[in-house]
Amino acid sequence: MLSSDYDPACLPDLLPLYYRRLFPFAQYYRWLNYGGVQKSYFQNREFSFTLKDDIYVRYQSFSSQSELEKEMQKMNPYKIDIGAVYSHRPNQHNTVKSGSFQALEKELVFDIDMTDYDDVRSCCSAADICSKCWTLMTIAIRILDRSLRQDFGFHHLLWVYSGRRGVHCWVCDEAARKLSAAARSAVAEYLSLIKVRQFHFSFNINIFIKESLTVVKRYFPQYALQDQNILGRKESEEKVLALVPEDILYIFNVHRATTAKKRQYFEKEIMLQYCYPRLDVNVSKGVNHLLKSPFSVHPKTGRISVPIDLKDVEKFDPFAVPTISLICEELDRPMADEDEAKLEDAKGKENEQDSTEKRKIRDYKRTSLAKYVKYFDQFLAGMTDSWKGKLLRQSDLQKEF
Amino acid sequence: MQFPSKKPRAVTDLKAELYSQPLQFYGQPPLENISLSEFESFAVDRLKLLKTVENLGVSYVKLSDDYLRKLDNEIRAQNFPHGAGDAKDQTEKRRKDHISHFILRLAYCQTEDLRRWFIQQEVDLFKYRFRELNSGEKLEFLHKNNLQYNTISAEEKDNLREKLTISSYAASGVKVEEQDFYKVPFQDALDLVRTRKVYLKEGYAYIPHNEIVTIVLNDFRTRLSKALALTARSLPAVHSDERLQPLLNHLSHSYLGQDYSVQKNVGKISLEQIDSLAGKSFPLCMRQLHQALRDQHHLRHGGRMQYGLFLKGIGLSLEQALQFWRMEFIRGKVDADKFDKAYAYSIRHMFGKEGKRTDYTPYSCMKVILSNPPSQGDYHGCPFRHSDPELLKQKLQSYKVSPSGVSQILELVKGMHYQLACQKYFELTHNVEDTAFSLSHPNQYFTESQKVLGGGKDVKRETDTLQRPQENSAARGLTAAREPAVDESQHLAEITKNLETDFQDA
């Protein structure tokens, strides 16, 4: 109902409104500035924009939050990508001696795309998704989130809906941002059981697999057997058997009374084949890889790339994610009385601030975007403490008081 | 007052201190003066060692018994530090190890390919040496080199026992109780992380003691890679020293063995023998050239040079050579006059009797493989490198090489190990298990072949007992393989003579 209201042709009218009144620039800047712990971290960050008529511009960089705002409001990008933090300002990279301009740091990122699961989805294919196959995403998020935290010790993970058919994960820990390409590739391979576009399943008994299976088992009966109705339909049953490696199938067929252990492996393997997250390692490997920015609009669906609240991941519904047309519409709606009262209170407290600033703060709060920005605030609050600690240590070292 | 007596002791103490460890990461460059001849001889010896490491790595499973035995032999032969031996003896060898490593860095830092090759062989050599240390020495090495990885306490091990067992046991058959486990940041153990062969918790990898090698190797590789990049940047300064530049270029490009220009066997071969020798003792490239010459009564310039110089190397005199070529060419389209006018000159030139009178040296394998590729109508070059694999296969079959032998050779060719392929050809045609030499020159092939066919058992035994260093002159007389040492020092003398070497520092 909501998505049918979105018409890509309206983007040129909606985007200026979005960037002027809704895009959460303050939080966005707070995030990418990382507390100002490292000098020029924000200034040396590469952004790339896709403008109207598919014009793509790279090596955009900005010296402050207000410059970022002004430029984005001027250009009204259809898509925004975030790249690496470089050794120099990306928009001056042509003036730098060749070889000196290097990508230094970037968040560790993962991209999970539903099309990579096409061979195991019977409800949809290609760019379509539905609530049944969305469970695959939920499983993927759970497995990867657990592993990144427990195995690798990362704390600050931002999961973002890509706007159409997948999710991205941004690992923002300092240690993650400093990882080399080789380290990123190793982490991605550790997490890959099923190599995307390279259908290779290597079964290596390991704690990681054991833990992942625990997650999968929670979802599997409902997902695979009921939602996907795997063993219900003949084609599906054949599909299941087609996925089983030949040697196990051979054993299964030839020795009907197969040993309990082998059947165990067989079942585990089927579960993992169906549900295990499929990563594109190439996205994670490169330090300079550009990935779609949170709060960017998806031009085809109109949906905003919103952060996903992990506490409620099972309830996340991609079809309930607000579109740009919805939130622009919500801007103009008259507000309910109690909301008005709350805002009046806030107004009193914000007397020193710019009036446009005040209006902006009110604006997104009126729309469905509010809860997502609130979640983003919580995510940032979690990181703030580590920045403060770092700044204190730095000033101690420099003996500033 | 007391200073004079203290000083010498301090210096030797310093050296002993520097070289007290059996193995090092080569973090600090050597800070002493050495003579140019030591500079070159150290570098050449290490290069030979590294080339052996490369060849063994291709021919045998790394760290298998054969590999270990042969590598150990080569290390002793080149006078590098090895497991046994008393401290004083080892200090000198470790010093040589240290210095030669840094010299080769200069030679091998310039291009990506050279760097990759050098790093690979040094890593393999390091792997071998680390393995040879006992566990006490291993721990000492780790601590002295700032790999402050800590072992986990017994209680922690107990708590994590099940997880450690599952993650490590399946991968490498390790018993958790028996081994120490180290807690290492995951970024330092990427290979193990990538293949999930390790238990990870909160960013740390829990590694059993025997896996520490992998970590150490990666560390070594990374350090060396960075160091080479730095070295490359300071290379212009090094190149400005004219004494060093030719030496360094020579190291990364050349053949390093006997040059066969000093002919010991002049006149020992008669022309009638050549046909049978071609079948028995010539390497494939020369056999091919000889065959073409007999069939067509002619060879083009490239072929004449390669084959003619080879014949000179095996002992043909100028007169014999002239007679040989003349007889063959006359059977073809060339008459005696034309031969004397056109071709004789170039043969005399080969022997250094014309023009600038350089006595040309027979081509080494590297030269044959890398320069002047043959085109249609040419028969020179290296058949393993330049022939179409199908044609090569047919040729080998026609020379009665067994099918399994042919496929082994083709495998080596596919992997671009042309000299090893030729060595395999040697083994198959001479019916020996294992060549005692590393093939790098067609004339070497001939000499070794003659040894096997003539000397038989004696030769093989001699080369196996290649233990004592060159100081032992008695040994020098015994083994035929010691001869190269004599020629080499002549060779070295030639080179150092050409450079301006006025001083010799202790």
Automatic annotation (TrEMBL), chain A:
GO MF annotations in UniProt: DNA-directed RNA polymerase activity; metal ion binding
UniProt feature, compositional bias: Basic and acidic residues: 343-360
Domain of life: Eukaryota
Location of region: Disordered: 341-360
Keyword annotations of the record: DNA replication, DNA-directed RNA polymerase, Metal-binding, Nucleotidyltransferase, Primosome, Transcription, Transferase
Catalytic activity: ssDNA + n NTP = ssDNA/pppN(pN)n-1 hybrid + (n-1) diphosphate
Nucleotidyltransferase keyword on record: yes
CC terms in the record's Gene Ontology section: alpha DNA polymerase:primase complex
InterPro entries linked: DNA_primase_S, DNA_primase_ssu_euk/arc
Enzyme Commission no: 2.7.7.-
Keyword flag Transferase: yes
Pfam families the record matches: DNA_primase_S
An annotated GO BP: DNA replication, synthesis of primer
Family classification: Belongs to the eukaryotic-type primase small subunit family.
Protein name, as recorded: DNA primase
Organism: Poecilia reticulata
From TrEMBL, chain B:
Keyword 4Fe-4S (UniProt): yes
Pfam families from the UniProt entry: DNA_primase_lrg (PF04104), DNA_primase_lrg_N (PF26466)
Free-text function comment from the UniProt entry: Regulatory subunit of the DNA primase complex and component of the DNA polymerase alpha complex (also known as the alpha DNA polymerase-primase complex) which play an essential role in the initiation of DNA synthesis. The primase subunit of the polymerase alpha complex initiates DNA synthesis by oligomerising short RNA primers on both leading and lagging strands.
UniProt similarity note: Belongs to the eukaryotic-type primase large subunit family.
Official protein name in the record: DNA primase large subunit
Cited InterPro entries: DNA_primase_C, DNA_primase_lsu_euk, DNA_primase_lsu_euk/arc
UniProt keyword annotations, A-Z: 4Fe-4S, DNA replication, DNA-binding, Iron, Iron-sulfur, Metal-binding, Primosome
The organism of origin for this protein: Poecilia reticulata (Guppy)
Molecular-function GO term, any one: DNA binding
CC cofactor: [4Fe-4S] cluster
